[in-house]
Predict the structure.
Amino acid sequence: MNTLIFTVVTLCVVGIVAAIVLYFVAQRFKVEEDPRINETEKMLPGANCGGCGFAGCRAFAAAMVERDDISSLYCAVGGADCMKRIADYLGKAAPVKEPMVATVRCGGTCEKRPHTNSYVGTQSCAIASSVYIGETGCAYGCLGYGDCVAACAFDAISINPATGLPEVDADKCTSCGACVKACPKGIIELRKKWPKNRAIYVSCVSKDKGAVVMKACKAGCIGCGKCFKVCEFGAISIENNLAFIDSAKCRLCRKCVGECPTGAIKMIGLAPLAKKEEAPKPAAAPQPEAAQPTVIEKSKE
Amino acid sequence: MRSFPIGGVHPSDNKAWSRGSAIETMELPDVVNIPLSQHIGAPAVAKVAKGDKVLVGQLIGEAASFMSANVHSPISGTVTAVDMQPNGQGLRQMMVTIKREGDEWLPEIDRSTTLVEHCDLAPKEIIERIKAAGIVGMGGATFPTHVKLSIPEGKHAETLIINGVECEPYLTSDYRTMLERGELLIAGTRIIMRAIGVDKAYIGVENNKPDAVKHLRELLGGDKSIEVLSLKTKYPQGGEKQLIAAVTGRQVPPPPALPIDVGAVVCNASTAVAVYEAVQKRKPLIERVVTVTGKHLASPKNLLTRIGTPVEALVAKCGGLPEGDVRVLNGGPMMGRPLVNISMPVMKGCSGIVVMDGGDVHRGKESACIKCAKCVEACPMGLEPYLMYKLIRKKAWDDLERNDIPICIECGCCQFTCPAYIPLLDQVRFGKQTVMGIIRARNAKK
């Protein structure tokens, strides 16, 4: 019995002494921190994705509090609402940025871009691309092992087993840019997000000459320049045998889409343009698939 | 029996398929694509343009810097293109395409077969001739030989080691070279000894090639300056650092130290033959012996092939590709690179073409690492592959640098020995590439 009492008393005394010591130590070494950092952090999404360029949400919150001009800071995950709330709380001007969405610029589906070999190595785009061209004849196209899928913290990107290509769920995509960094081929681009997720983009990044592209993939950009000639807004540029549509200048007029001989210009959420007519306002019922079959036949001829 | 001190594995050598077939001369190709980068270092600069007539042995690509090598035409004919062409990995690189017309050699090349042993050229002149001939390490690493033989100021060479180990399974090109062109090899060895100013050379041969050891010893007779060493059959005995350790007992310190820091210069056996031909016959490196072998290849052969001959022509000569899934390797099964484009030309560093088929092309199903440390035991460089694999998956590049990933020789012992079939070599190669890139970027900044 004595032993028991002795043990309990000793432990209590040790506990009390330690508590007193810790109290004074905590007072002595107290870290003064701006309480607004905590509050700001709470307002952020807390994904710690690193898309803002900081180590995590807390580092970003600290930067928001410390800097006078926060126009260069932006949390793409939280979006405009979140930024506005924080800016109001801190009494600073809210940073403004257009909403963006990750876009996969490769149209080389299994049927359009036939496999020339099969890969048995580690299922990783980074490793496969460090070893060789990939399973198809295109040195620029998507490898399809899903490094972008693994990088996405928001479950917004997935490989479509039918096409072998990644697809972005524009509603889930926060434009953090993790997939852009993860893709060793540089296929994924952050582009301006239009209402209803509409988009027009060149779904090819091949810098090869037209003949080489055609041999490897039936959906590639051959750099013919037809889209460049038809664009009224100067949004299209041709460089290294590759057309590029600047999403900041593009007005979704859809003229280029019909011009493309290989169907490399992809259109999402828009109806194809009626033949040789002025662009009407986007139709209510989008039929994005309608344009595709005719294009395939054209390239087969 | 001499051997390197740590690590190593014993893959079945499968050399029997091609070791018995004497070197045959491959027919001249009608069209060749000659890559301007067949070596480590800067690619050569094209010296010909479309429409130019070239002769065998004519310079078509000039070394761009000290760390580069000349490229010569292996056939005579007309240049039809200087363009980007797909290499073995399917990626495009600069190549000179030549269409063959006859077989006319440059007049200054001595094509007689008489053995010229006497050499009284100054070391500088020897190295100059080697440089002009565009000779690179023919064991596969393709390090420019003139760079290797130019001993830097303040360093001193003590021993020359001729690498006739050929530890890579399947390959027999160096073995056949030693047997059939032994005189040239020894003459080449003496020339290199003269060039670097050493009076002792060793020829290292694995003891699975006793007839090559015996043959070379017979040719040498009483000559004590060159010694043929029979080394233990263990992969990677022919790795440069492993061979130095086996022959001299010295360890090459980690980079930036080079073999010359321990007084050793290592040259491949085929390279020694090429040096002889370059110095005594003024013949540039335009042909080499290539082993074409495989389990189900109708007739595996050792072919004396002009550089630029398409790999598919070699395979066709040996009976064509077997049915079903095949993997064609440029090099041996341990370090060779699979080819996706078998119209790729034979290059200076291509010692063998291995055709694998059936079950050999598939890998075992990967399972979790149980930390058995077999890979640590097998690593001849004393690294910890399982740890590097973990760090690569975490993208911990600075930790990898601290764990000495740049010294990995990519021999593949770790992957060969792993009971969980973890693709360690894939990962480590990728990690090494990334870390080297980071180091280069950092050095460039300074």
